[in-house]
Amino acid sequence: VLEKLWLIHFLQTLENENLLPVLQRMAIVVDGPLAVFDDPAWISTPIKLELQRINSEARKVLGDPRFNMLIMGIEKTGGFVEHLENLDKGPNGEMDFLATQTAILLTDAYIKERIIFSVSDSVYGRNTYFGRKVLYKAKSGALIVFSLPFLDENLSNTKTAEMEQF
């Protein structure tokens, strides 16, 4: 929780000091998914709204309506990492099946059918996540699971996986 609050405080400080333009040259990497779990999960919605507000303000300051802050939550272990590793295995179990620079934006249906196995009508992570998961195989061959924040409502629609949602 403190790491997520630190992220918001850092961005608010940039805004208060009139330093939002620095965001066009900065990537912010957070350890773990863009989510808050268990009892403090309620704070995920205010975090999402504050990220959207700051991103909107940065767009105004930069004069670029398409600008989005580059914030990523990186996952090193867990079911999504295991799933990506399994996708990269060929039919004989050898690694390197996926082409490099492959990015997979996950939908709610994909997550429930292939990773979390759920028939719930509720969107996966609706109460905990303020970011959306992406599976990626880098040019180097590294497998990366990361989350991108819901910086506007279109990005938070996990029923679709369109290019403009990346």
What does this entry show, briefly?
This protein has 166 residues and is an alpha+beta fold. The chain has helices at residues 2-16, 44-62, 79-87, 108-114; strands at residues 27-31, 70-75, 102-105, 131-137, 143-149.
Task: Tag the structure with descriptive keywords.
globular, 5-stranded mixed sheet, 166 residues, 5 strands, 17% strand, alpha+beta
**Helical stretch count?**
4
Main-sheet strand order equals 1-2-5-4-3
Helix content: 25-40%
What's the N-to-C terminus distance? 25 Å
Structural class: alpha+beta
- Count of beta strands: 5
What would you call the shape?
globular
Strand content: 15-25%
Order of helices and strands: HEHEHEHEE
CA radius of gyration? 17 Å
How would you describe what is shown here?
The protein is of the alpha+beta class. Helices cover 30% and strands 17% of the residues. It has 4 helices and 5 strands, in the order H-E-H-E-H-E-H-E-E. The protein has helices spanning 2-16, 44-62, 79-87, 108-114; strands at residues 27-31, 70-75, 102-105, 131-137, 143-149. The protein has a 5-stranded mixed sheet with strand order 1-2-5-4-3. Helix 1 runs parallel beside helix 2 (44-62). The protein is globular.
What topology does this entry show?
Blueprint: H1 2-16, E1 27-31, H2 44-62, E2 70-75, H3 79-87, E3 102-105, H4 108-114, E4 131-137, E5 143-149
Parallel strand pairs: 1-2
Antiparallel strand pairs: 2-5, 3-4, 4-5
Helix pairs in contact: 1-2
